[in-house]
Amino acid sequence: MLIRREFDEEPPRVEYELGSLGMELLIRMSPIWTWVVENAEDFRKARGTFDGQDQKKMHGKFGKTYA
Predict the structure, then answer these.
(1) Would you call 9 helix, strand, or coil by DSSP?
(2) Nearest-angstrom CA–CA distance, 61 and 26
(3) H or E segment at 16?
């Protein structure tokens, strides 16, 4: 996933780069990350709505309160 290169230098130096598996993951994750960024404000609004709900209405199936 990652390729690490160590250099025999002073001070010590290390470089990292994505391997083929890491690059494949990055390519597949990019659309999801874009969607998250594009919808961040909607997530904030939904969280605000949820946080403002009456706690008594938020009891779960097993009597637990979710907040």
Answers:
(1) coil
(2) 38
(3) strand 13-18
